[in-house]
Amino acid sequence: MTLPGRLSLNLLALVACPLAVLAQAPAVPDWAQPGSATHKQVPPPPNFHRPTRTLLDPIGVFTGQSDIGGAVVPGQSAFDPATGAYTIRSAGYNIWYTRDEFRYLWNRVEGDVRLAADISFPNASGYGDRKVVLVVRQDLDDDSKEAMVGLHGAGLIHLAGRPEKGANITEACRVEAAGVAPGERLGIEKHGDTFTLLVSLKGEPLHPAGAPLTLHVDGPFYVGIGFCSHLPATVDSGVVSHVTLETGDLPPLATTFDAASDAALAAMAEHAAKLKTTGVGVVAYFTGAPIEGWTSKMRVMGSYKALPTEKDKGYNLLAIAYSKAAEMADLLRDSGSGARAPYVGEFGWQGGVIAPARSGYVIAAFSGGKSEDDAAIARAGLQILTSAY
């Protein structure tokens, strides 16, 4: 029997030296190698593609799974119904430039969509640029038009998109973070042609962050979760859990003051500890101006008073913190701004900060340390509140 030349040579090689062939590492082009101190990853050559491998096997809430871009080592996926966790194992040079390589779990949908999930990386020593992605794609080709939210192993979060098939991906916004903290939850939301990054970094309600991305995809399109090791021939894994996938008429994001204020006060307490400062933190939210009522929460961070000494009468830090908040509610400026002389009941001290929200104002105030420290601690809480409201 005569075999085609390429096939017969491969069979002869297997017969002659099967162990050597089986042990041979997959061939990886130099451009696909990850960045290092001695190597810079560059875009793929023009018109370089690998076919996608697809399985129409349902997994969890998803109806199919694919190795986008046919990484040289096949990927795997597993779902644990008891925990709701998806473990995605994949090699892949990157999800960037003009083409992608990653394991993708997907559904085909139309209209508006919101996808959110908790994300973690089991392997603490994995490559820093590996990433879990929440991604909307036009098709399953390696160079598909797409919008993605990605969490990198080193902590970077971003929203990026490939505006046309075969084009370079560009970044719309990013959130820098030092590592991946337990409980981080990310989301991507599509309203028409607008895509938004959703984040929850410290247990606060999921909320929009950064600039949106404008990109048009025709329906039906693909939406799902994925993972890429950023190493073209080395498999790593990401875990995606508590996945929620909403389509159609999306309900508003659930933002409760209790959740947002707890997260804000926790951020203030963390910053106060770094500055070795104790005192009282107050956060508040109110609609409209002039103020007619507010919702507030207070937390003692070490002590709510400074006892009298030979040099002063002592301080009620709780009263001072609320005084800063009251001054801001009247002036709509940070406390101690000097915009007017303090009224009776006010001190005119710094350490409170205020910002407009989508439907009112949010306030954070701290009392217990030096003015500049109080203000820095308050800003840590205000950052959480402004992102939630």
Description:
The chain has two domains: 222 residues, Jelly Rolls, CATH 2.60.120.200; 132 residues, Beta-Lactamase, CATH 3.30.450. Helices cover 18% and strands 38% of the residues. The protein contains five helices and 23 strands. The protein starts with a helix and ends with a helix. A hairpin with an 8-residue loop joins strand 18 and strand 19. With 389 residues, the protein is an alpha+beta fold. The relative contact order is 0.12. An eight-stranded antiparallel sheet has the order 1-2-7-16-9-10-11-12, with no helix packed on it. It has a seven-stranded antiparallel sheet with strand order 3-4-17-8-13-14-15, with no helix packed on it. The chain has a four-stranded antiparallel sheet with strand order 19-18-23-22, sandwiched between helices.
Strand content: 35-45%
Biggest sheet architecture = 8 strands, antiparallel
The CATH class of the largest domain is identified as Mainly Beta
Number of strands: 23
**CA gyration radius, whole angstroms:** 27 Å
Work out the helix count. 5
Average pLDDT: 89
Descriptive keywords:
single chain; about 400 residues; 2 domains; 7-stranded antiparallel beta sheet; about 20% helix; disordered N terminus
Q: What's the short story on this structure?
A:
Helix 3 (257-274) packs antiparallel against helix 5 (371-388). The protein is of the alpha+beta class and 389 residues long.
Task: Describe the secondary-structure layout.
Layout: H1 5-16, H2 18-23, E1 53-55, E2 64-68, E3 76-80, E4 85-92, E5 95-96, E6 99-100, E7 102-109, E8 113-120, E9 131-137, E10 146-152, E11 157-162, E12 170-175, E13 185-191, E14 194-200, E15 207-214, E16 221-228, E17 231-247, H3 257-274, E18 279-286, E19 295-301, E20 305-306, E21 315-316, H4 317-331, E22 352-357, E23 360-367, H5 371-388
Antiparallel strand pairs: 1-2, 2-7, 3-4, 4-17, 5-6, 7-16, 8-13, 8-17, 9-10, 9-16, 10-11, 11-12, 13-14, 14-15, 18-19, 18-23, 20-21, 22-23
Helix pairs in contact: 3-5
